[in-house]
Amino acid sequence: MTAVAEPGRRTVRVGRVSWVVHRRELVVVGALVAVVVGVGAFALTQGEYRIPLDKLLAAFTGTGSESVLRIVLEWRLPRVVIAVIGGIALGLSGAIFQSITRNPLGSPDIIGFNSGAFTGALIVTLVVGGNYAATVSGALIGGLATALVVYLLAWSRGVQGFRLIVIGIAISAVLNAFNDYLQLRADLNAAIAAASWGMGSLADLGWQDVVPMTIAVAVLVPLLALMSRRLGMLEFGDDIASALGIPVERARLLLLVLGVALTATVTAVAGPIIFVALAAPQLARRLTKSAGITLVPSAAMGAALLLVSDVVAQRIIAPAALPVGAVTVTLGGIYLIALLITQAGKR
Asked: Measured between alpha carbons, how far is 32 from 155 in angstroms, rounded to an integer?
């Protein structure tokens, strides 16, 4: 293993594999990890039954009382783990879409893939009827089918990022109307449950939800790592990427599938959660001051955003709790307005 030092960066080589490590990115990712650990510890101690820090540490060493072990390890820890893994998935998904569209509005929230995943889950839940696995499969199929439709409609001698976003917004509007129709036609109790799930919530989730999400993300992230070089090349534009030997349309389609799968994995477990995929890559880029979208800082920012949002949702009107989606919608609206004002000011 060798390392080549340059101002602000290090190129690390292990055998034939090499990658560039930016010092500022390391600092930002380290700070975000510290935020996740600190907020996660806070979330584990707060609630109807407050857990002192010494008892929290005892729970992780297996020396705490049975009640503390149950509260910390069985009730609260799964929610924190889902927030972190889900945030990583959404941050990476947003980074993929903003890279391939080369637009800060290129997000599964805006393009409509969240809505498509929600449509798939609603059809399974309200029309077909199915168990948890079927709902997860429905969300994944709905997200992928939406991506395919948007991709085909956006095709015109290739796919341009702005065209993909505009058509995605139109498809999202249609899907949202269809989702409302499905809920209006459903049984009242089922419609209320679907509407509640559609807000995006991490409440009542347990280890049975952590396992499939973790497996899915563990499969998708290495695949994304293999595609990361092509993703970086696409940010320079189709002509440059093609000149560098990148099969542009095939790479874009594969990355699109990976981004949709990451989003659908979260939607299937917790419902559609917007804002995180939209904001995480841009906030990470501004903190790292990088020229383009970076995957690891985006993932760390996504984890921090979703975990902090969920803690705010739990504590802002305690003892009652809000769905985390209600918090992210509010923050997302503010962020989107600020982003549009910033973009308008540049013209």
From this structure: 38
pLDDT, average across residues 314-328: 85
The residue whose two tokens read 């290495």 is 222
Q: What is the pLDDT of residues 210-230, one digit of tens each?
A: 998 899 999 999 999 888 888
Largest CA distance in the chain: 65
Give dist(CA 235, CA 233) in Å, integer: 5
70/82 Cα distance (integer angstroms): 17
Q: Are 108 and 97 in contact, with CB atoms under 8 Å apart?
A: yes
The answer to whether the beta carbons of residues 216 and 254 sit under 8 Å apart is no
The Cα–Cα gap between 149 and 30 comes to 39
Residue 168, token pair as written in the block: 């995605």
Q: Mapping DSSP to helix (H, G, I), strand (E, B) and coil, where does residue 237 land?
A: coil
N- to C-terminal Cα separation, the chain: 47
Strands 9-14, 2-6: pairing is antiparallel
129-137's contacts with Cβ under 8 Å and 24+ in sequence apart are 132/208, 135/268, 136/212, 136/268, 136/269
